[in-house]
Specification:
- By secondary structure, this protein is α/β, with parallel strands linked by helices.
- It folds into two domains: 126 residues; 245 residues, Spore Coat Polysaccharide Biosynthesis Protein SpsA, Chain A (Alpha-Beta Complex), CATH 3.90.550.10.
- Strand 5, helix 4 and strand 6 form a beta-alpha-beta unit.
- The longest helix has 19 residues.
- The N and C termini lie far apart (52 Å).
Length: 512
Protein backbone atom coordinates (compact mmCIF):
# COMPACT_ATOMS: atom_id res chain seq x y z
CA UNK A 1 0.00 0.00 0.00
CA UNK A 2 1.27 3.45 -0.95
CA UNK A 3 0.25 6.10 1.56
CA UNK A 4 -0.66 9.53 0.30
CA UNK A 5 0.58 12.65 2.01
CA UNK A 6 -1.43 15.80 1.47
CA UNK A 7 0.75 18.04 3.61
CA UNK A 8 1.88 19.47 0.32
CA UNK A 9 -1.10 18.77 -1.90
CA UNK A 10 0.28 20.66 -4.90
CA UNK A 11 3.15 18.20 -5.23
CA UNK A 12 0.62 15.39 -5.66
CA UNK A 13 -1.64 17.10 -8.16
CA UNK A 14 -2.73 14.97 -11.06
CA UNK A 15 -5.55 15.32 -13.60
CA UNK A 16 -7.81 13.02 -11.57
CA UNK A 17 -6.57 12.50 -8.06
CA UNK A 18 -9.06 11.18 -5.48
CA UNK A 19 -11.66 8.47 -5.98
CA UNK A 20 -14.20 8.06 -3.15
CA UNK A 21 -15.85 4.94 -1.77
CA UNK A 22 -18.28 4.83 1.15
CA UNK A 23 -17.75 1.73 3.28
CA UNK A 24 -20.59 1.20 5.74
CA UNK A 25 -20.47 -2.49 6.62
CA UNK A 26 -17.79 -5.07 7.27
CA UNK A 27 -19.17 -6.90 4.20
CA UNK A 28 -17.86 -3.99 2.14
CA UNK A 29 -14.38 -5.35 2.87
CA UNK A 30 -14.97 -8.74 1.24
CA UNK A 31 -12.61 -9.80 -1.53
CA UNK A 32 -15.45 -9.63 -4.09
CA UNK A 33 -16.47 -6.09 -3.09
CA UNK A 34 -12.85 -5.00 -3.07
CA UNK A 35 -12.21 -6.46 -6.53
CA UNK A 36 -15.21 -4.56 -7.92
CA UNK A 37 -13.95 -1.30 -6.41
CA UNK A 38 -10.50 -1.73 -7.92
CA UNK A 39 -12.02 -2.57 -11.33
CA UNK A 40 -14.05 0.63 -11.21
CA UNK A 41 -11.10 2.76 -10.11
CA UNK A 42 -9.00 1.47 -12.99
CA UNK A 43 -11.41 3.04 -15.47
CA UNK A 44 -9.95 6.45 -14.51
CA UNK A 45 -6.42 7.73 -14.11
CA UNK A 46 -7.04 7.76 -10.37
CA UNK A 47 -3.99 7.73 -8.11
CA UNK A 48 -5.64 7.75 -4.69
CA UNK A 49 -8.60 5.91 -3.16
CA UNK A 50 -10.45 7.86 -0.48
CA UNK A 51 -12.23 5.36 1.77
CA UNK A 52 -15.08 7.01 3.68
CA UNK A 53 -15.47 4.93 6.84
CA UNK A 54 -18.19 7.12 8.34
CA UNK A 55 -20.74 4.31 8.44
CA UNK A 56 -18.63 1.82 10.40
CA UNK A 57 -19.64 1.42 14.04
CA UNK A 58 -17.55 1.07 17.16
CA UNK A 59 -18.61 -2.59 17.39
CA UNK A 60 -16.24 -3.50 14.58
CA UNK A 61 -13.78 -5.87 16.26
CA UNK A 62 -9.98 -5.48 16.04
CA UNK A 63 -9.83 -8.80 14.19
CA UNK A 64 -12.32 -7.56 11.60
CA UNK A 65 -10.38 -4.31 11.32
CA UNK A 66 -7.13 -6.18 10.75
CA UNK A 67 -8.78 -8.26 8.02
CA UNK A 68 -10.20 -5.11 6.44
CA UNK A 69 -6.81 -3.40 6.58
CA UNK A 70 -5.14 -6.24 4.69
CA UNK A 71 -7.95 -6.19 2.13
CA UNK A 72 -7.56 -2.47 1.56
CA UNK A 73 -3.81 -2.69 1.20
CA UNK A 74 -2.83 -1.91 -2.35
CA UNK A 75 0.41 -1.33 -4.20
CA UNK A 76 -1.55 0.07 -7.14
CA UNK A 77 -3.25 3.04 -5.47
CA UNK A 78 -2.50 5.45 -2.68
CA UNK A 79 -4.88 5.15 0.26
CA UNK A 80 -6.53 7.85 2.37
CA UNK A 81 -9.22 7.24 5.02
CA UNK A 82 -12.05 9.59 5.97
CA UNK A 83 -13.36 9.13 9.52
CA UNK A 84 -15.58 10.96 11.98
CA UNK A 85 -14.10 12.23 15.29
CA UNK A 86 -15.77 9.49 17.35
CA UNK A 87 -14.13 6.80 15.17
CA UNK A 88 -10.51 7.90 15.51
CA UNK A 89 -9.81 5.81 18.61
CA UNK A 90 -12.09 2.86 17.82
CA UNK A 91 -10.69 2.29 14.31
CA UNK A 92 -7.00 2.45 15.21
CA UNK A 93 -6.36 -1.12 14.10
CA UNK A 94 -7.90 -0.52 10.69
CA UNK A 95 -6.14 2.76 10.08
CA UNK A 96 -2.76 1.76 11.54
CA UNK A 97 -0.22 3.89 9.65
CA UNK A 98 -2.61 4.88 6.86
CA UNK A 99 -3.12 8.66 6.58
CA UNK A 100 -6.60 9.92 7.32
CA UNK A 101 -8.83 12.98 7.21
CA UNK A 102 -11.36 13.81 9.89
CA UNK A 103 -14.86 14.65 8.67
CA UNK A 104 -16.69 17.47 10.47
CA UNK A 105 -20.36 18.24 9.84
CA UNK A 106 -21.64 20.18 12.85
CA UNK A 107 -20.92 21.59 16.30
CA UNK A 108 -21.16 18.15 17.93
CA UNK A 109 -18.32 16.92 15.73
CA UNK A 110 -16.17 19.84 16.83
CA UNK A 111 -16.87 19.04 20.50
CA UNK A 112 -15.87 15.40 19.90
CA UNK A 113 -12.74 16.57 18.12
CA UNK A 114 -11.71 18.73 21.07
CA UNK A 115 -11.99 15.68 23.36
CA UNK A 116 -9.46 13.68 21.34
CA UNK A 117 -5.84 13.33 22.33
CA UNK A 118 -3.49 16.03 21.12
CA UNK A 119 -1.32 13.22 19.72
CA UNK A 120 -3.64 12.44 16.83
CA UNK A 121 -2.18 13.39 13.49
CA UNK A 122 -4.83 13.69 10.78
CA UNK A 123 -3.73 14.81 7.35
CA UNK A 124 -6.47 17.41 7.40
CA UNK A 125 -10.20 18.04 7.78
CA UNK A 126 -13.10 17.65 5.38
CA UNK A 127 -15.94 20.03 6.28
CA UNK A 128 -19.44 18.92 5.24
CA UNK A 129 -22.12 21.25 6.66
CA UNK A 130 -25.78 20.41 6.08
CA UNK A 131 -27.50 23.48 7.57
CA UNK A 132 -26.82 27.20 7.64
CA UNK A 133 -25.98 26.95 11.36
CA UNK A 134 -23.46 24.16 10.70
CA UNK A 135 -21.96 26.29 7.94
CA UNK A 136 -21.45 29.28 10.25
CA UNK A 137 -19.77 27.12 12.90
CA UNK A 138 -17.44 25.46 10.41
CA UNK A 139 -16.49 28.82 8.91
CA UNK A 140 -15.38 29.83 12.42
CA UNK A 141 -13.44 26.55 12.73
CA UNK A 142 -11.65 27.18 9.43
CA UNK A 143 -10.73 30.74 10.40
CA UNK A 144 -9.51 29.72 13.86
CA UNK A 145 -7.24 26.93 12.62
CA UNK A 146 -5.92 28.70 9.53
CA UNK A 147 -4.18 25.64 8.12
CA UNK A 148 -3.77 24.58 4.51
CA UNK A 149 -5.36 21.16 4.75
CA UNK A 150 -8.96 22.15 5.41
CA UNK A 151 -11.27 21.17 2.56
CA UNK A 152 -14.98 21.64 1.90
CA UNK A 153 -17.44 19.02 0.68
CA UNK A 154 -20.91 20.54 0.25
CA UNK A 155 -24.04 18.52 -0.43
CA UNK A 156 -27.17 19.31 -2.42
CA UNK A 157 -30.05 21.27 -0.92
CA UNK A 158 -32.38 19.06 1.14
CA UNK A 159 -35.94 20.41 1.19
CA UNK A 160 -36.78 18.11 4.11
CA UNK A 161 -34.00 19.55 6.28
CA UNK A 162 -34.85 22.66 8.31
CA UNK A 163 -32.56 25.53 7.25
CA UNK A 164 -30.77 23.31 4.76
CA UNK A 165 -27.68 24.93 3.28
CA UNK A 166 -28.36 26.39 -0.17
CA UNK A 167 -26.15 27.43 -3.07
CA UNK A 168 -26.98 31.04 -2.31
CA UNK A 169 -25.73 30.61 1.27
CA UNK A 170 -22.41 29.25 0.02
CA UNK A 171 -21.97 31.93 -2.63
CA UNK A 172 -22.95 34.70 -0.19
CA UNK A 173 -20.06 33.80 2.13
CA UNK A 174 -17.83 35.56 -0.43
CA UNK A 175 -14.75 33.50 0.30
CA UNK A 176 -12.77 30.78 -1.49
CA UNK A 177 -13.50 27.17 -0.61
CA UNK A 178 -10.89 24.48 -1.21
CA UNK A 179 -11.93 21.04 -2.45
CA UNK A 180 -9.80 17.93 -2.48
CA UNK A 181 -8.31 17.97 -5.95
CA UNK A 182 -10.24 15.67 -8.28
CA UNK A 183 -12.69 14.46 -5.61
CA UNK A 184 -16.16 14.03 -7.06
CA UNK A 185 -19.14 15.47 -5.26
CA UNK A 186 -21.14 12.95 -3.21
CA UNK A 187 -24.77 13.47 -4.21
CA UNK A 188 -26.79 12.37 -1.16
CA UNK A 189 -30.05 12.65 -3.09
CA UNK A 190 -29.16 9.67 -5.30
CA UNK A 191 -30.90 6.46 -4.12
CA UNK A 192 -28.48 3.85 -2.77
CA UNK A 193 -29.60 1.21 -5.26
CA UNK A 194 -28.43 3.21 -8.30
CA UNK A 195 -25.38 1.59 -9.92
CA UNK A 196 -23.21 4.52 -11.03
CA UNK A 197 -20.11 2.66 -12.20
CA UNK A 198 -20.88 0.41 -15.18
CA UNK A 199 -18.78 -2.70 -15.62
CA UNK A 200 -19.01 -5.43 -18.23
CA UNK A 201 -20.83 -8.14 -16.30
CA UNK A 202 -22.72 -11.08 -17.86
CA UNK A 203 -25.93 -10.39 -15.95
CA UNK A 204 -26.02 -6.73 -17.03
CA UNK A 205 -24.29 -6.34 -20.38
CA UNK A 206 -24.05 -8.21 -23.65
CA UNK A 207 -22.14 -7.28 -26.79
CA UNK A 208 -21.88 -8.42 -30.38
CA UNK A 209 -19.55 -6.97 -32.98
CA UNK A 210 -18.73 -6.86 -36.66
CA UNK A 211 -15.10 -6.33 -37.59
CA UNK A 212 -12.94 -5.99 -40.64
CA UNK A 213 -10.19 -8.56 -41.21
CA UNK A 214 -7.58 -5.82 -40.95
CA UNK A 215 -7.81 -2.90 -38.53
CA UNK A 216 -5.96 0.37 -37.98
CA UNK A 217 -8.57 2.07 -35.84
CA UNK A 218 -7.89 5.77 -35.36
CA UNK A 219 -11.33 6.88 -34.17
CA UNK A 220 -14.03 5.41 -31.92
CA UNK A 221 -17.48 6.92 -32.57
CA UNK A 222 -19.60 6.37 -29.45
CA UNK A 223 -23.41 6.52 -29.59
CA UNK A 224 -25.68 6.10 -26.54
CA UNK A 225 -29.21 5.16 -27.53
CA UNK A 226 -32.56 4.41 -25.92
CA UNK A 227 -35.52 2.96 -27.85
CA UNK A 228 -34.46 4.75 -31.04
CA UNK A 229 -33.93 1.89 -33.50
CA UNK A 230 -35.26 3.62 -36.64
CA UNK A 231 -33.17 6.78 -36.35
CA UNK A 232 -30.18 4.82 -35.04
CA UNK A 233 -30.13 2.62 -38.14
CA UNK A 234 -30.08 5.71 -40.35
CA UNK A 235 -27.25 7.24 -38.30
CA UNK A 236 -25.16 4.06 -38.60
CA UNK A 237 -25.88 3.89 -42.34
CA UNK A 238 -24.39 7.37 -42.75
CA UNK A 239 -21.37 6.44 -40.63
CA UNK A 240 -20.46 3.36 -42.66
CA UNK A 241 -20.57 5.30 -45.94
CA UNK A 242 -17.53 7.48 -45.37
CA UNK A 243 -14.75 8.54 -47.70
CA UNK A 244 -12.14 6.84 -45.49
CA UNK A 245 -11.57 3.07 -45.35
CA UNK A 246 -13.72 1.27 -42.73
CA UNK A 247 -10.54 -0.16 -41.19
CA UNK A 248 -9.75 3.34 -39.86
CA UNK A 249 -12.63 3.72 -37.41
CA UNK A 250 -15.16 1.89 -35.29
CA UNK A 251 -18.74 2.58 -34.22
CA UNK A 252 -19.75 1.69 -30.65
CA UNK A 253 -23.44 1.80 -29.73
CA UNK A 254 -24.72 1.40 -26.17
CA UNK A 255 -28.41 0.58 -26.01
CA UNK A 256 -29.32 1.86 -22.56
CA UNK A 257 -31.83 -0.76 -21.48
CA UNK A 258 -34.39 -0.02 -24.20
CA UNK A 259 -37.17 -2.42 -25.16
CA UNK A 260 -37.53 -1.77 -28.92
CA UNK A 261 -35.15 -4.59 -29.97
CA UNK A 262 -32.57 -2.10 -31.24
CA UNK A 263 -29.74 -4.63 -30.92
CA UNK A 264 -31.54 -7.29 -32.98
CA UNK A 265 -32.79 -4.79 -35.56
CA UNK A 266 -29.34 -3.26 -36.11
CA UNK A 267 -27.83 -6.74 -36.45
CA UNK A 268 -30.39 -7.76 -39.07
CA UNK A 269 -30.05 -4.54 -41.09
CA UNK A 270 -26.27 -4.56 -41.25
CA UNK A 271 -25.51 -8.29 -41.19
CA UNK A 272 -24.34 -8.16 -44.81
CA UNK A 273 -21.60 -5.74 -43.66
CA UNK A 274 -20.36 -8.18 -41.01
CA UNK A 275 -16.77 -8.27 -42.30
CA UNK A 276 -16.80 -4.83 -43.91
CA UNK A 277 -17.28 -2.50 -40.91
CA UNK A 278 -16.18 -2.21 -37.30
CA UNK A 279 -19.36 -2.05 -35.23
CA UNK A 280 -19.87 -2.95 -31.57
CA UNK A 281 -23.38 -3.13 -30.15
CA UNK A 282 -23.67 -3.20 -26.36
CA UNK A 283 -26.92 -3.86 -24.52
CA UNK A 284 -26.85 -2.48 -20.97
CA UNK A 285 -29.78 -3.72 -18.93
CA UNK A 286 -31.73 -1.49 -16.55
CA UNK A 287 -32.62 -4.52 -14.43
CA UNK A 288 -29.82 -5.02 -11.92
CA UNK A 289 -29.98 -8.52 -10.37
CA UNK A 290 -29.06 -7.22 -6.91
CA UNK A 291 -29.97 -3.53 -6.90
CA UNK A 292 -33.21 -3.61 -8.87
CA UNK A 293 -34.49 -1.23 -11.56
CA UNK A 294 -32.04 1.43 -12.77
CA UNK A 295 -34.57 3.87 -14.17
CA UNK A 296 -32.59 7.09 -14.31
CA UNK A 297 -30.70 9.23 -16.82
CA UNK A 298 -27.62 7.19 -17.84
CA UNK A 299 -26.41 8.75 -21.10
CA UNK A 300 -23.10 9.87 -19.56
CA UNK A 301 -22.60 6.51 -17.86
CA UNK A 302 -23.41 4.71 -21.13
CA UNK A 303 -20.64 6.70 -22.82
CA UNK A 304 -18.28 5.76 -19.99
CA UNK A 305 -19.15 2.10 -20.55
CA UNK A 306 -18.42 2.36 -24.27
CA UNK A 307 -15.01 3.92 -23.66
CA UNK A 308 -13.98 0.73 -21.83
CA UNK A 309 -14.00 -1.11 -25.17
CA UNK A 310 -12.91 1.79 -27.39
CA UNK A 311 -9.76 0.87 -29.30
CA UNK A 312 -8.81 4.27 -30.73
CA UNK A 313 -6.83 7.11 -29.21
CA UNK A 314 -9.50 9.53 -30.47
CA UNK A 315 -13.10 9.51 -29.21
CA UNK A 316 -16.17 11.08 -30.73
CA UNK A 317 -19.51 11.22 -28.88
CA UNK A 318 -22.51 11.37 -31.19
CA UNK A 319 -26.23 11.35 -30.43
CA UNK A 320 -28.33 8.56 -31.90
CA UNK A 321 -30.31 10.98 -34.08
CA UNK A 322 -27.45 12.90 -35.75
CA UNK A 323 -26.84 12.53 -39.50
CA UNK A 324 -23.28 12.98 -40.74
CA UNK A 325 -21.83 13.77 -44.19
CA UNK A 326 -19.54 11.34 -46.00
CA UNK A 327 -16.42 13.31 -45.03
CA UNK A 328 -17.32 13.34 -41.31
CA UNK A 329 -14.67 10.86 -40.06
CA UNK A 330 -11.97 12.56 -42.11
CA UNK A 331 -12.90 15.96 -40.64
CA UNK A 332 -12.89 14.58 -37.10
CA UNK A 333 -9.42 13.08 -37.45
CA UNK A 334 -8.07 16.26 -39.04
CA UNK A 335 -9.60 18.37 -36.29
CA UNK A 336 -8.16 16.25 -33.47
CA UNK A 337 -4.69 16.52 -34.98
CA UNK A 338 -4.79 20.29 -34.33
CA UNK A 339 -7.09 20.63 -31.33
CA UNK A 340 -7.87 18.83 -28.08
CA UNK A 341 -11.65 19.26 -28.26
CA UNK A 342 -13.82 19.66 -31.36
CA UNK A 343 -17.54 20.15 -31.84
CA UNK A 344 -19.72 20.44 -34.94
CA UNK A 345 -22.53 22.82 -35.71
CA UNK A 346 -26.00 21.31 -35.27
CA UNK A 347 -29.06 22.03 -37.40
CA UNK A 348 -32.45 20.48 -36.62
CA UNK A 349 -34.42 18.95 -39.48
CA UNK A 350 -38.09 19.91 -39.37
CA UNK A 351 -40.15 17.18 -37.76
CA UNK A 352 -42.28 16.33 -40.80
CA UNK A 353 -39.09 15.73 -42.80
CA UNK A 354 -37.33 13.92 -39.96
CA UNK A 355 -40.05 11.30 -39.69
CA UNK A 356 -39.27 10.30 -43.29
CA UNK A 357 -35.77 9.34 -42.07
CA UNK A 358 -34.02 11.22 -44.91
CA UNK A 359 -30.45 11.12 -46.17
CA UNK A 360 -28.04 13.91 -45.24
CA UNK A 361 -27.36 14.83 -48.86
CA UNK A 362 -31.08 15.26 -49.62
CA UNK A 363 -31.69 17.95 -47.00
CA UNK A 364 -31.91 21.61 -48.04
CA UNK A 365 -30.36 23.47 -45.12
CA UNK A 366 -32.10 26.81 -45.62
CA UNK A 367 -35.57 25.36 -46.21
CA UNK A 368 -35.70 22.19 -44.15
CA UNK A 369 -33.61 22.90 -41.05
CA UNK A 370 -33.48 25.40 -38.21
CA UNK A 371 -31.27 26.16 -35.20
CA UNK A 372 -33.03 25.34 -31.95
CA UNK A 373 -32.56 27.90 -29.16
CA UNK A 374 -31.01 30.09 -31.83
CA UNK A 375 -30.23 33.04 -29.52
CA UNK A 376 -27.94 30.79 -27.48
CA UNK A 377 -26.41 28.53 -30.13
CA UNK A 378 -25.96 31.23 -32.76
CA UNK A 379 -23.40 32.83 -30.45
CA UNK A 380 -21.24 29.77 -31.02
CA UNK A 381 -22.09 29.00 -34.63
CA UNK A 382 -21.48 32.58 -35.80
CA UNK A 383 -18.30 33.18 -33.79
CA UNK A 384 -15.05 33.26 -35.82
CA UNK A 385 -13.36 31.12 -33.14
CA UNK A 386 -14.94 29.11 -30.35
CA UNK A 387 -12.29 30.12 -27.82
CA UNK A 388 -12.90 33.83 -28.48
CA UNK A 389 -16.25 33.61 -26.71
CA UNK A 390 -16.50 34.48 -22.99
CA UNK A 391 -16.89 31.32 -20.90
CA UNK A 392 -16.58 29.34 -24.13
CA UNK A 393 -16.55 26.03 -22.26
CA UNK A 394 -20.29 26.41 -21.49
CA UNK A 395 -21.13 25.46 -25.10
CA UNK A 396 -19.57 21.99 -24.76
CA UNK A 397 -22.27 19.52 -25.79
CA UNK A 398 -22.18 15.81 -26.58
CA UNK A 399 -24.53 15.87 -29.54
CA UNK A 400 -21.29 15.83 -31.60
CA UNK A 401 -18.10 16.13 -29.54
CA UNK A 402 -14.59 14.78 -30.12
CA UNK A 403 -11.52 14.60 -27.88
CA UNK A 404 -8.46 12.52 -27.04
CA UNK A 405 -9.11 9.37 -25.02
CA UNK A 406 -6.25 10.17 -22.64
CA UNK A 407 -7.80 13.57 -21.85
CA UNK A 408 -11.22 12.03 -21.26
CA UNK A 409 -9.80 9.54 -18.77
CA UNK A 410 -7.63 12.18 -17.12
CA UNK A 411 -10.62 14.33 -16.14
CA UNK A 412 -12.45 11.33 -14.70
CA UNK A 413 -14.83 10.65 -17.63
CA UNK A 414 -18.45 11.84 -17.31
CA UNK A 415 -19.14 12.40 -13.63
CA UNK A 416 -21.43 9.76 -12.21
CA UNK A 417 -23.62 11.99 -10.03
CA UNK A 418 -25.41 13.57 -13.02
CA UNK A 419 -28.40 11.22 -12.85
CA UNK A 420 -30.80 13.59 -14.60
CA UNK A 421 -30.56 15.54 -17.83
CA UNK A 422 -27.97 18.27 -18.33
CA UNK A 423 -24.53 19.66 -17.44
CA UNK A 424 -22.51 16.44 -17.54
CA UNK A 425 -21.05 17.62 -20.86
CA UNK A 426 -20.65 21.22 -19.62
CA UNK A 427 -18.67 19.83 -16.69
CA UNK A 428 -16.43 17.92 -19.09
CA UNK A 429 -15.79 21.08 -21.10
CA UNK A 430 -14.98 23.03 -17.95
CA UNK A 431 -12.50 20.39 -16.77
CA UNK A 432 -10.71 20.61 -20.12
CA UNK A 433 -10.77 24.41 -19.94
CA UNK A 434 -9.04 24.23 -16.53
CA UNK A 435 -6.31 22.19 -18.20
CA UNK A 436 -5.84 24.75 -21.00
CA UNK A 437 -6.99 22.42 -23.75
CA UNK A 438 -7.57 23.92 -27.20
CA UNK A 439 -11.10 23.87 -28.61
CA UNK A 440 -12.42 24.33 -32.14
CA UNK A 441 -15.87 24.43 -33.72
CA UNK A 442 -16.10 22.68 -37.08
CA UNK A 443 -18.45 24.68 -39.27
CA UNK A 444 -19.79 21.63 -41.10
CA UNK A 445 -23.38 21.21 -39.83
CA UNK A 446 -24.57 17.85 -38.58
CA UNK A 447 -28.30 17.29 -38.95
CA UNK A 448 -30.51 16.38 -36.02
CA UNK A 449 -33.50 14.15 -36.76
CA UNK A 450 -36.23 15.83 -34.75
CA UNK A 451 -38.70 13.49 -33.09
CA UNK A 452 -39.56 14.95 -29.73
CA UNK A 453 -40.81 11.61 -28.47
CA UNK A 454 -37.13 10.70 -28.13
CA UNK A 455 -35.92 13.92 -26.54
CA UNK A 456 -35.09 13.81 -22.84
CA UNK A 457 -37.37 16.68 -21.85
CA UNK A 458 -40.38 15.56 -23.95
CA UNK A 459 -40.68 18.88 -25.77
CA UNK A 460 -41.43 20.65 -22.50
CA UNK A 461 -39.44 23.79 -21.82
CA UNK A 462 -40.64 23.91 -18.20
CA UNK A 463 -39.69 20.28 -17.56
CA UNK A 464 -36.27 20.84 -19.10
CA UNK A 465 -35.64 23.84 -16.86
CA UNK A 466 -36.57 21.78 -13.79
CA UNK A 467 -34.02 19.15 -14.75
CA UNK A 468 -31.33 21.72 -15.52
CA UNK A 469 -31.81 23.45 -12.17
CA UNK A 470 -30.80 20.24 -10.42
CA UNK A 471 -27.74 19.53 -12.51
CA UNK A 472 -26.63 23.18 -12.68
CA UNK A 473 -26.46 23.12 -8.88
CA UNK A 474 -24.27 20.01 -8.94
CA UNK A 475 -21.94 21.73 -11.38
CA UNK A 476 -21.43 24.68 -9.01
CA UNK A 477 -20.97 22.45 -5.95
CA UNK A 478 -18.31 20.42 -7.75
CA UNK A 479 -16.16 23.41 -8.65
CA UNK A 480 -17.19 26.14 -6.15
CA UNK A 481 -16.21 28.87 -8.58
CA UNK A 482 -18.25 32.05 -7.88
CA UNK A 483 -18.12 32.89 -11.59
CA UNK A 484 -20.12 29.72 -12.28
CA UNK A 485 -22.77 30.86 -9.80
CA UNK A 486 -22.99 34.26 -11.48
CA UNK A 487 -23.17 32.72 -14.95
CA UNK A 488 -25.97 30.25 -14.16
CA UNK A 489 -27.72 32.24 -11.43
CA UNK A 490 -31.09 31.97 -13.19
CA UNK A 491 -31.04 28.21 -12.56
CA UNK A 492 -30.25 28.65 -8.86
CA UNK A 493 -32.87 31.25 -7.99
CA UNK A 494 -35.62 28.64 -7.40
CA UNK A 495 -33.49 26.11 -5.53
CA UNK A 496 -35.37 26.63 -2.26
CA UNK A 497 -39.14 25.92 -2.70
CA UNK A 498 -41.56 28.48 -1.25
CA UNK A 499 -42.86 25.99 1.34
CA UNK A 500 -39.34 25.29 2.59
CA UNK A 501 -38.50 28.99 2.78
CA UNK A 502 -41.70 29.67 4.74
CA UNK A 503 -41.01 26.75 7.11
CA UNK A 504 -37.47 28.03 7.79
CA UNK A 505 -38.79 31.52 8.48
CA UNK A 506 -41.34 30.19 10.99
CA UNK A 507 -38.68 28.02 12.64
CA UNK A 508 -36.33 30.99 12.92
CA UNK A 509 -38.97 33.13 14.63
CA UNK A 510 -39.79 30.37 17.11
CA UNK A 511 -36.15 29.75 18.00
CA UNK A 512 -34.93 31.44 21.20
Amino acid sequence: MRNVSINNLESHRSPNYFYRYKLDYIADFSSLAHARRISKARQNTTTCLLYDLGGLTETTSPAEQALAHSMLSSTEFEILFLVRPEQVNSLKTLMQETPYLISLSDEKDMIRLSALSANIKPQGFLLSPKTTEDFKNLLVFETAHNIDNIFWDFGVYDRNQIKSLSLKDIFSARRPFRRLDGLELWNHSIPNHFELEPLFEPQLTSMWQFKTSYQRIKLSVIIPSFNNAAFLANVIKHLIHQDLPPEDYEIIVVEDGGQDRSSEIIYEIFESYKSKINLKMIYWSKDHPEKGAQNFFRAGLARNLAVQVAEAENLFFLDSDMLTPSHFVREVLAGLEKYDLIQFERHHIHQNISLLNPRYQDIELKKQTYIEESVYWSQLFKAPRWMDLPNYWKFTCTYALGLKKKDFLAVGRFKKYYVSYGFEDTDLGYELFLRNKKCSLIKTPLLHLTSYNHMQYKNSHVQRLKLLRKTAGLFYLQHLNPEIYKLFGNFYSFEKPFKSALRDLIFQRRSP
